[in-house]
Amino acid sequence: MRTSAYMHPSTAARAPFAVGATNELDDAIAAGTNGLLALQKADGHFVFELEADATIPAEYILLEHFLGRVHAPRQAKMVAYLKRIQGSHGGWPLFHGGDFNISASVKAYFALKCAGEPVDSPVMRRAREAILTFGGAEKSNVFTRIQLALFGAVPWKAVPVMPVEMMHLPQWFPFHLSKVAYWSRTVIVPLLVLMALKPQAENPTKTKISELFVTPPHKVKDWHTNNNPSVFVPVFKAIDGVLRVAENVIPSFVRQAAIQKAVRWVKERLNGDDGLGAIYPAMANAVMMYRALGYHDDHPDAMTAWSAVQKLMVERAHEAYCQPCLSPVWDTALAAHAMMEVGGETREAAESALEWLKPLQITELKGDWADWRPKATPGGWAFQYRNDHYPDLDDTAVVGMAMDRFDHQQYREAIAKAEEWILGMQCKNGGWGAFDSDNTYDYLNHIPFADHGALLDPPSADVTARCVSFLSQIGYPANHPQMEKAIAYLRREQEKEGCWFGRWGTNYIYGTWSVLCALNMLKLDKNDPMIRRAVAWLASKQRIDGGWGEDGESYWTGKPKGEGKASTPAQTAWALLGLMAAGEHRHPAVARGIDYLITTQNEVGLWDEEYYTAVGFPRVFYLRYHGYKAFFPLWALARYRNQFKANEEQYPFGM
Beta strand 621-625 with 614-617: parallel, antiparallel or unpaired? Predict the structure, then answer.
């Protein structure tokens, strides 16, 4: 239902930007270019902060207390950060301005208490009241309860059984590591060792949180929180009961062999100081696994695991937080696209960025993705500085398009390898997932352990659109068999309103921009009903101030799509780029959106953006890319100028 923050496409709240006012547009582009270039590293790459919610810094504080190696000055800064982002509801949300979240709130409260925050302080009192109002800590998700079990705050029966012996299971078995997403794999394997050994945290302050439970933990009868409406849920719940009995009679030699297999698996993927899976939860689990196994802190593997976690820290004068991962490849590739859109003086900077990216292509190692696509030729890029076992199709397509746009001949070998890998990773339904192929074992999202519902990496419209854009840009026609399958997939995925779901960006604005770019490259008729419906939907979601904004609530069923509490520069840029990809650069909504970006540009040529515009796992984990406000608005402004100069509806590039 439309609210007063939204307007009909034909209604303007203020005089829109005039196409003829080129000085204002040119000035904004020049300022944005200078602002972006000032952030480029000496070696050509870009890396911006990547901020999550309270859970990661809270988990980091708890990790130090698990190990008994607390860095007091930095802990004080992390406490300041957690206190600042507390919500008006008393707890902690999953994204800026979001609703109370029980699991994030329990972790934040526990971390603050461990760090010495008095339980009668206003912060703790408000948090405690909110947590109890929402049912208490016993309502937390599985990962939170595992954290509590490690500190003895709940019994291990509060956690679903995940026997480490599953390391021995064959690939054909209903549950196998290769059947879950890469992030699940890297988090689960060291966690299996922890769940087998059941270590207890050092917990130097001997902190407990019994005051957060409505029902005392030892009296809770049913800890299951996976309430997915599926026939699988009661079946898996019964299996969990059987496993709980069976794990007590498993021969010790079988268990020990499984533990050793898990340790070897982790060591093979330890990934230097970029860390296991290059994501915080997996890295932290690896650190705790080595401690539980009795490794000394100066053991090379334990030191490597700990070093990777430290690389994620952001520390300022008065605050600090831990990032969930680093995003240099993604940041650099997208910044290169923005710079090429600007053109002219940015060419040298764009080439420097691409030269930094070139040697990071993974061309030798066949990672976990090869379990299901053994014949595919490696040629992808990872999201992070290094993550060779887990290249990303989204990043690969974006890097490939940037290299092709800059100079196909100069980067022909890298582009060809990316092309082979992307073609080899297409799923049976015509789409592409982010890291694996046909990772669609939906029944696994109903096991007790998966109450977060984010165990899998199925195909998505946004990643598929990116792969289609890349392949189209390098010459694949719409009637190529693999492209035909992809187009059919995208047609099926369009929502009844005309938008597309955004798996990796928030949300329908992101997905719709991504798909419209692909359809532009495929040279589909601009009057195709699929395109017309998408254009109408985007225009209808423009806000009175001329911008677009959508928050994480849109990932919940029944919530409005494409709407949020405020306009954001990044989402406004996506909407504009999507409309322009559909040949609508003269649409009144585009002029108003351009006006919004010009008038909200700050004094250093960039934009301010508090709201989270990306997602790790829908309804579970959200992200704020600090780079999005730097390169996407600039990109949209430059694209607007270029389309008017070219006076063409068809744009020759895939993004």
Answer: antiparallel
| Of the candidates 441, 486, 449, 480, the residue with the CA atom closest to the CA atom of residue 467 | 486
Active-site position among 394, 436, 457, 545: 394
Residue ranges covered by each domain of the chain: 51-217+230-322
Q: pLDDT averaged over the chain?
A: 93
Average pLDDT rounded to a whole number, residues 78-101: 96
Residue located via tokens 């700050």:
602
Dump pLDDT digits (tens) for 489-523.
Answer: 999 999 999 999 999 999 999 999 999 999 999 99
Helix (H, G, I), strand (E, B), or coil: what is residue 555? helix
Q: To which H or E segment does residue 494 belong?
A: none
Task: Tell me how far apart the alpha carbons of residues 501 and 540 are, in angstroms, rounded to a whole number.
Answer: 17
Tokens of 626: 């600090």
Q: Which two tokens stand for residue 146?
A: 């595992």
**CA distances in angstroms from 422 to 153, 462, 602, listed in the order given:** 46, 14, 39
Under 8 Å between Cβ of 381 and 399 = yes
- Written as one string, the DSSP assignment of 337-370 is HHHHHH-GGGHHHHHHHHHHHGGG-B-S---GGG
Taking alpha carbons only, the member of 278, 334, 342, 328 closest to residue 307 is 278
Q: What is the predicted pLDDT for the residue at 234?
A: 67
Give the CA count within 13 Å in the CB-facing half-sphere of 527.
0
Would you say how long the chain is, in residues?
A: 655
Listed in sequence order, the residues at least 6 apart from 206 whose beta carbon sits closer than 8 Å to its beta carbon are none
pLDDT in tens, 336-378: 999 999 999 899 999 999 999 999 999 999 999 999 999 999 9
CATH of span 51-217+230-322: 1.50.10.20
d(CA 477, CA 2): 39
Could you give the dihedral angle defined by the CA atoms of residues 502, 508, 513 and 519, in that order, rounded to the nearest 10 degrees? 80
Give 221's DSSP letter. S
Query: Are residues 127 and 91 in contact, defined by beta-carbon separation less than 8 angstroms?
Result: yes
CB 553 within 8 A of CB 619: no
Question: What's the burial of 386, exposed, middle or buried (CB within 10 Å: 0-12/13-18/19+)?
Answer: middle
Asked if 394 is an active-site residue, the reply is yes
